[in-house]
Amino acid sequence: MNTVKLEKQMRIVPLICVVMMLLFRQFTKGDENPVWTIVTIVLGILALISFFFKMYLEKKNGHFVAKRYYLFYFFIIILLNSSLK
Predict the structure, then answer these.
(1) Cα torsion for 6, 56, 84, 79, to the nearest 10°?
(2) DSSP tag of 21
């Protein structure tokens, strides 16, 4: 299995999840439906899991740089916090 190719493909998954979370937030402003909250939480968890898996693949391939991930961690935490309010 080519892990470098898989690592490149995994880059898009967190971005898609975060964009979907932002879109759901715009469409459901003021709606107190628990289904949208559950969908947002699932998308956030999927984004984090795929992000950590990408980090694992980078460590395995030997080109992991921790500095580039701090901004993404901050963005995901703020997004999850604001979507649960």
Answers:
(1) -70
(2) H
Q: What is the C-alpha to C-alpha distance for residues 41 and 39, in angstroms, rounded to an integer? A: 5
Report the SS3 class of residue 65: coil
What type of residue sits at position 60?
Answer: K
Smallest Cα–Cα separation from 73: which of 14, 13, 26? Answer: 14
How is residue 27 written in tokens? 């469409």
Q: What is the pLDDT of residues 56-68, one digit of tens each?
A: 888 887 877 777 7
Q: Is the CB of residue 5 less than 8 Å from the CB of residue 54? A: no
Query: Is the whole-model pTM more than 0.70?
Result: no
